[in-house]
Amino acid sequence: MSERLTNEIVESILPGESATARAAHQSLKGDRRGLRGLLPFLGPAFIAAVAYVDPGNFATNIAGGAQFGYLLLWVILASNLIAMLIQSMSAKLGIATGKNLPEVCRERFPKPVSLGLWVQAEIIAMATDLAEFIGAALALNLLFGIPLFPAGLLTAVGAFAILELQRRGFRSLEVVIASMVGVIVLAFAFQMFYAQPEGDRILAGLFTPQFAGTESVLLAAGILGATVMPHVIYLHSALTQRRVVGRTEEEKKKIFRFELVDVVIAMAIAGTINASMLIMAAALFNANGLTDVGDIDLAFEQLRVLVSDNAAIIFGVALLASGFSSSSVGTMSGQVVMQGFINRQIPLWLRRLITMAPALVILALGVNSSYALVISQVVLSFGIPFALIPLLIFCRNRDLMGALVNYRLTTAVAAVVVALIVSLNVFLLYQTFFG
I need a surface site. Which of 53, 157, 332, 382 has the fewest CB within 10 A? Predict the structure, then answer.
């Protein structure tokens, strides 16, 4: 395929960038300043941030708060800082090279390696969709009493509707997904109001790293190990690669500085949501002796009992927004990995059908939804090294990155983070199968 056709494929995922690009270049020249100058660059990180507040995070954070109170808040803070580092590197790769991570892998690695990376990335895409799809279906079940399989079919319709927005340009998609993140923020703001947590215990939990036995270590590993979603690392580089094209090295550095603000804001919002989930569970469930509330459906029912029907409904709406938005992001990621690793593409509706098929089968068979979420996270663990290690290798390559190459300190910190996350996921896999 020619480079021109490859560019058209990427732009078909994120069409209609001209208006945003024009505004962005005005910002780069100094014609737009302040918030008005920043606005054209906001968006990519908000789409990526959806992966950090998906239904799998609901289950993990609620279990952590219910079982250990405020103890593991510091793990969420650390996870959020790690997310900022990794997502900024992914965004930087797209800005510096004009290519996404799978494309760079295809160019730099032997063909069999790229093919293997594509196969594992497709499996990861299905596992990702499994968690997000089941989360949305479970929300419809809890809110409206719809059986899980019909709820799954309704989820498919909703996901198709969101993805259809791509035909109107990526700005429309960014606005809708950011709005869904806003729904989740408002929902947990209400939950915090209902829970009335203790401020001093929140501060102690955030800034005092500690554990309470082996079980807390395992749960902390689960929270931190699930921080990085492989599919969103691939996607973020695609979201920035042609959004605003820097014509000089200096322009690329300015673009990255703007995108870094986008990353910090979006990841801070995601971190606040995750912390709010744990705080709510600590203040309501742990404080009332309900330390075994780990399943999402059980949390929904306990909110109804302890607080009110409204509190449970708000929780369900947040879960629904999380499932719909994160499922759409997963499908976009699937398009990026296929186009990047093997230079091929299939229609978006077909990819949506393929990735949702395992989730629909599981719902039809009546498999426990929380168990399915756990299994999906285990599968995701396998894919983390295959996204993180190439990203680290490329971002430290001056010939590839130019002026945006990682500083030595950045590379050192990133290497420690990659080693930590990979080790934690290996540990979690061992505990899942042999512990």
Answer: 157
